[in-house]
Amino acid sequence: MPNNADHDARNALVSRLFEDSARANRATLAATNHVIVAAADRVIACVDADHKILSCGNGGSAGDAQHFSSELINRFERERRALAAIALTTESSTLTAIANDYDYDRLFSRQIEALGRQGDVLLAISTSGNSANVVAAVHSAHAQGMSVIALTGKDGGALAALLSDSDIELRAAADTTARIQEMHLLFIHCICRLIEDHLLGTG
Length: 203
Ligand SMILES: O=C(CO)[C@@H](O)[C@H](O)[C@H](O)[C@H](O)COP(=O)(O)O
Ligand SMILES: [Zn+2]
Prior knowledge:
Elements: H1 4-48, E1 53-56, H2 60-73, E2 85-87, H3 92-101, H4 109-115, E3 121-125, H5 132-143, E4 147-152, H6 157-162, E5 168-171, H7 177-200
Helix pairs in contact: 1-7, 2-7, 4-5
The protein binds D-altro-hept-2-ulose 7-phosphate (I22) and zinc ion (ZN).
D-altro-hept-2-ulose 7-phosphate binds next to α2 and α7.
């Protein structure tokens, strides 16, 4: 069992983490408020035209990619029609075959070659902006005529540099992976809320 001094130190650490997250939250809102709305509008145009959203990322960002697709396919907060979305992080046979036969860097890009169509949107998630398989996914999305919404952090990394003028970058104003991921989930929930308001009216 931790002693009292340890207990106080751990309480202080948790307070600091909450404070860091709140600071990141405020700074990210200031930097991205209108970009979040633009990203939601891009997804709305995609679903209104019966196109689909593909999503990808590694580690915690793989979880975020799945979190987003589940909220589109199932629902977020309100009853509405099902929306077409595929997380490219879930099919173990496909994932292991691509990594084994080609390269881990092609994990997502190969699936986009198979599934991506003009008018679809790729949600590309990387806290560093430097995951090679996410970078390759963006190249592949461009080749398929898709547009990209990139969730990034830090300085945006390689991802930010390769986005086209019609793509959208939502960059969390934070430097640590965990804080950036917390902002990414808030981006996702804001977009889901704006989609449901569009489909159902603000209620
Ligand atoms: O969730 C975490 C850390 O919070 C990790 O699993 C993290 O997602 C992994 O290290 C990823 O490989 C990091 O990739 P990226 O965000 O830089 O693209
Ligand atoms: Zn959620």
